[in-house]
Amino acid sequence: MSAELDAEARAASSQVEAFFERYYGISECLAATQIVRDTTTEVTEGGIAAHRLYGSLLETLKLIQQNNAEDIDFVWVANLTTGEVLQNDGTIFGPAELDYTTRSWYKLVTEKQDTIITEAYTSVNTNATMVTVASPVYSNGKLVGIVGIDLNMEHITQRLAAISVGTDGYITLYDSSNRIVYHPDSSVVNTNAADANYSSNMLNAIVNKEDLSATLYTRGGTEYYGSTSSIESLGYTVLGVMPVTEYTTHTSAILRVLIIGMVGCAILLTAVCVFIALSITRPLKRLNTAVGKLADGELNVTVDTHGRDEVAEVGDNVARIVERLKEYILYIDEVSVVLNQIGAGNLVFTLQQEYVGEFSKIKEALLNIRSTLTETLTNIAQSADQVNAGSEQIASGAQALAQGATEQASSVQELSSAVQELSRQATEEAEKAIEAGRFLEQVKDEVEKSNSQMETMRKAMEDISVQSTAIRGIIKTIDDIAFQTNILALNAAVEAARAGSAGKGFAVVADEVRSLAGKSAEAAQKTNELIENSVRAVEHGEELTKLTADSLVVVSDRTKQVVATMEAVAEAYHEQADRLSEISKGVDQISDVVQTNSATAEESAAASQQLSGQASMMHQQIAQFKLGQDIGEPAWQPEAAPASFDEWDMEGKY
After folding, report:
1. In what order do the strands lie in the sheet with 170-174?
2. What are the boundaries of each domain within the chain?
3. CA proximity to 468, closest of 515, 533, 418, 516
4. What are phi and psi of 51, to 5 degrees?
5. Dihedral through CA 604, CA 606, CA 608, CA 612, nearest 10?
6. What values do phi and psi take at 297, rounded to 5?
7. Is 217 within 8 Å of 223 (Cβ atoms)?
8. 8 Å CB contact between 143 and 110
9. CA 423, CA 420: separation in Å to the nearest integer?
10. Which of the four CATH numbers 3.30.450.20, 3.40.50.300, 1.10.287.950, 3.40.640.10 does domain 403-622 have?
11. Is 212 left (phi over 0), alpha (psi -120 to 50) or beta?
12. 193-210 b/e with 16+ CB inside 10 Å = b?
């Protein structure tokens, strides 16, 4: 009955815990929703009813209450900023109607900063026992609201009433303040356990939330057996109660049955044990005597094997063991001698005994050892010879490789020096080409300057040619004037001749004028000839100037090409110098590798010599073994074993 009482108390405790955990989860989920956070964080003129999410929040509260109407009376949200509380029925309590700071749920939430369950209380509207589950609402780490669920305890108390504890037993539920939430006797509901006349042992268990197993206590002077189960997460306690008369009646009946059964079993078991003990101990004593002699080394023992039970079978097996041990000693002696010979290096032997049973494996193993060791040592000897010959060849090749690598390293160093010299020369040639390019650039500038000056001179020659043409016109005019003057002078002479003596003086002037006109015409003729010569000279000079200018243009173009070529040559020399520098680095790396190879080859030669020495030493070690295929002698055989076991003494000698 104790186990039954404990089980019912734990079952009731599980139901209560599951009931509250359900609404713990609903309360915390509602507090975490964005609708609740927004409506408790955002302050709207006109209060919570004017908030943009008021309709959605009210529908959510209604839905929760409707889905759990059997347990929930009200679901509400308290806005700590505005002091308003909204219920699922649409009722809004302002600070004037409801001072929530005096409510227990507000004090507990602000104190614990977590979801809480209040003590049981009596509803002023329905006179039903109620509790409230409340969860805090946070925004940016600040407490802005509280979500609450008012639970009617009628449904859970109905479940507790349906739990049967024996025939007349029942369940009692206490809240965190030790107030009786459920009891079959409604007169004690909502009273404190301290006022319910419990004995001290049960009252202490209820107050301290202890778990008791079928403990005797009193309430109101009546004795009961009770088991308590504490719900730590809620602070609630469940008490399973059974009257003493019912508890002791069941317990006494069970004890009587157990005592009678135990006494009968004890008598029967004693008789059986005595009979079995006598049938086993007597043969075992005889068998123990024989085994003791066998343990002392006495193999000539007789084992009594009378009977058909297991002890007789054990005796037969012990007798067979004795006979087999006599044969095994001969096996062990021969195996020991053979193993000593193997340890001494002699692998040429034959086994004389006929090994049976598990010892045949020893014979097979020894023969396998002989065959395997012989084959292995022969192979090792051959391998040692091959290693010796190969190591000598490797040493010779490594030495030749080291010598060749040394010579190659010397050649690579010379090649590196030559490449460095070529790189230096290429750099110098590149610098010279750059210098020649700069000089040709200066020449190009001078040619372009001369070409410009030649163009100026050509233009000046053209101007001289133009001026000569103008002078030629003037000379023609002078010539015309001289001709006219000559005609005038001739007319004047004619007129002077007509005048006679009066015109003699005029005739003299006319002759002078005619003479002067002739001289002017002659001078004009000579000047015209000189101008013609000058014009021809100027035209010839102009032609030469033009040819010279064209030549200078060609020279300028060719100079530009030469400058470009020299720059390309200089660039090529630079690239060649860079490549030679890279080649020099590569040659240096090759030199390092060749030197490393040379050192490695020398180390390989030294290692090969050491390997050759180790192979020789291995060959000497193998030569200490006597192998069957290396000799023409017959196989060694152990000395003949005694004809029977009786010829042996206790130390295994005969």
Report:
1. 180-182, 170-174, 236-243, 222-231, 215-219
2. 2-245, 403-622
3. 533
4. -70, 145
5. -170
6. 100, 0
7. yes
8. yes
9. 5
10. 1.10.287.950
11. beta
12. beebebbeebbebbbebe
Instruction: Return the structure tokens found at 477.
Output: 């005019």
pLDDT of residue 357: 67
d(CA 74, CA 148): 8
State residue 652's pLDDT score.
38
What is the Cα–Cα distance from 1 to 249, expressed in whole angstroms?
Answer: 10
Q: What one-letter code names the amino acid at 288? A: N
- Please state, in angstroms and rounded to a whole number, the distance separating the CA atoms of residues 24 and 134: 8
Q: pTM for this structure?
A: 0.41
Residue type (1 letter), 322: V
For the chain, what's the residue count?
A: 654
Alpha carbon distance 139, 513 (integer Å): 136
What does the pLDDT read at residue 332?
A: 75
Judge whether 2-245 and 403-622 match in fold. Answer: no
- 446 alpha carbon, distance to own chain's centre: 72
What is the rounded CA–CA span in Å between residue 324 and residue 337? 20
> In this structure, are residues 105 and 134 in contact, taking their beta carbons and an 8 Å threshold?
yes
Instruction: Give the DSSP per-residue string, 202-224.
Output: HHHHHHTT---SSEEEEETTEEE
Tell me if residue 196 falls in helix, strand or coil.
Answer: coil
Helix (H, G, I), strand (E, B) or coil at 415: helix
Low pLDDT (below 70) residues in the chain: 1, 250-258, 275-288, 290-291, 293-320, 322-328, 347, 356-359, 391, 395, 398, 402, 405, 624, 627-654
Fold of 2-245: Beta-Lactamase (3.30.450)
Within 13 Å of residue 116, how many CA atoms lie on the same side as its CB?
19
Residue 133 CA to residue 124 CA, distance in Å, equals: 18
* CA dist., res. 205 & res. 182, Å (int): 17
Measure the CA–CA gap between 595 and 402, rounded to whole angstroms.
Answer: 9
Partnered with residue 92 across adjacent β-strands are 86
Which class for 227: exposed (0-12), middle (13-18), buried (19 or more C-beta within 10 A)? buried
Separation CA 78–CA 95 (nearest Å): 11
Question: What residues pair up with 616 in beta bridges, in sequence order?
Answer: none
Alpha carbon 577 to its chain centroid, in Å, reads 48
**Dist CA 624 CA 620 (whole Å):** 7
pLDDT for 323? 67
Integer-rounded Cα Rg, in Å, for the chain is 69
In sequence order, the 6+-apart residues with CB closer than 8 A to the CB of 83 are 94, 95, 100
Share in percent of the chain as helix, strand, coil (round to 5): 70, 10, 20
What pLDDT shows up at residue 253?
60
Separation CA 413–CA 588 (nearest Å) = 7
Q: Are 144 and 138 in contact (CB under 8 A)?
A: yes
Cα(560)–Cα(35) distance, integer angstroms: 86
